[in-house]
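protien #1 (seq + structre)
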Amino acid sequence: MSTRIGLFYGSTTGNTEAAAELIKANLNQFTVDLFDIADTELTLTENYEFLIFGISTWEYGGLQDDWESRWESLAQQDFSGKIVAIFGQGDQVGYDEWFQDGIGILHDKLTEQGATAIGYWPNSGYHFTKSKGLSENGSEFLGLSLDDDNQPELTEQRIDDWCQEIAAVLQELACETA
């Protein structure tokens, strides 16, 4: 399959980077180009029809530093016609009122700019108070939710399952355009 995916992530502690690498490995039937946004211009997203973004939520609902520094650049881009999926890292115990806010903030920005989002994830199995990363009805996250601080043993299986869903959607889209 000739589908190319641009996978852009920001990582401070290495957890989001490790997840990005696992996602790339799981989507090995596609060409996945991996970019750390700390040293990558987000204008490179223009080269891809399908994008995956990795973000973590910091402290009281803040964006990870690399995302914060690239936010203005992101806000100037047109994502019309782009298919996007988001994964996020968060701490549901220490920051239960802001768990996965980064997913929601990024999701809203991308969809405001024309992107079509896929890869929503059930919110079962998590224990938190509030999140901007939930769908309107609260039943699912607006992307894959990971918590390597409190549930590291679930990360690999969650990524495997999510990547199967992403791959199925991409294969369906490829068939529709063929």
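ok now protien #2
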Amino acid sequence: MRSFAATNQESQTLAEAEEKKAGKAERNGINIQNERSLHIGLKQWYAQPQDRFEVPVGGFVIDLVRGSQLVEIQTRNFTAIRPKLKALLKEHPVHLVHPITYEKWVVQVENKGTSVLSRRKSSYRGALTDIFEELVRLPELVMHEGFTLEFPFIREEEVRCRDGKGSKHRKKVSIKDRKLLEVISTHRFATAQDFLQFLPSTLPQPFSNKDLEKALRLPLHRCRQITYCLRKMEAIAVVGKNRNELLFSVALSPVAETTTPAEFLPAE
């Protein structure tokens, strides 16, 4: 399995690509060229009057700069941004914003994308624990004092087209765009201790992934993602085994309070 640590070569290659992307001097407004609607919408939602946009820093193009802090908005695929984050964190504080879809509406368009065929509300409903689907790509970065994360809960519109080019599980339907409808709430994480809120106080000590599965009522694969991330953050440690199951114990003191609901869903 390939290490999650980015190599110098990866960072250099990505930096060169970003430098070509910059091409011109810093822009005064939000650049929408070659950006998807969701990314643009989140940037507009997050922006404050004194922010700067599309700023070249260290060979990379930064979505938004606020004072000394660099802000990157990543709607998917933490693997792609990991080398960039690791390179930037050597000299700058970095804040990563990643949306979690709470509710979505599916819009079907015809092949040319000019006419809407239908619009329906999806049965899908997200939860804060969905962050671990991507966080497994870079959990060790949480230990860096200059790295913080923010997860806005959103309502979005997903634009689809039956063009035969999509994946098999979507029956060849392509996702053409994602549009931000509303930010319901947002959740910030600054330290490894902040992530201990995902461990219920009722968990036995030590505990297994199956204990966590029972306590959170989540699929086992999600619980494994949670414990993997917490281990990489050094928030929990492996303290033994019960047959083939690893046993974990909390290695850090949890934060005193959390505003996240017990079920990890935003308030209605």
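The longest helix spans residues 8-22.
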